[in-house]
Structures are given as C-alpha cells and as structure tokens.
Known about the structure:
By secondary structure, the chain is mainly β. The protein has one domain: CATH 2.40.50.100. The protein is built from one helix and four strands. Strands 3-2-1-4 form a four-stranded antiparallel beta sheet. The radius of gyration is 12 Å and the shape is globular. The model has no long low-confidence stretch (mean pLDDT about 90).
Amino acid sequence: MEQSIRNQLPGTIKSIVSDKVLSEVIVETSIGEVASVITTRSVEEMKLKLGDKVFVLVKATNVSLRRRS
C-alpha cells in the first residue's frame, strides 16, 4: 500500500478493546497517543496485539480532535 509520508505515524500498540464488531486500538506515537476504531475482524486478520509496531494512517476527513486540558 502506497501512502504519503505526511499521513503516517509510527507507533506501538498500547491497548486494544474489542467487542463483536468494533475495536479501539490505542497507539503510542512520538506525538502522543492516537486512538483508532477499526473492525474487530481487521484486528484479527492483522493479528494485532499489545506491543506490536504499527503505522497509524491518518485520513483528514476521519479525524476527531479534542482540546487537551
């Protein structure tokens, strides 16, 4: 899969919380934690687990921002 470098954040999986349909994957990156919601099937197919090295791919239309307190 070809992606531009500006939308890739390397990181490490810190937590995975799954139900039957969706999973929230928390990835620790150099700029902080990033939460991603993907299908549980994707988690299983990619065999994701805690400590795995991954890339977070960011699509601007799917980003949610929260103000830090």
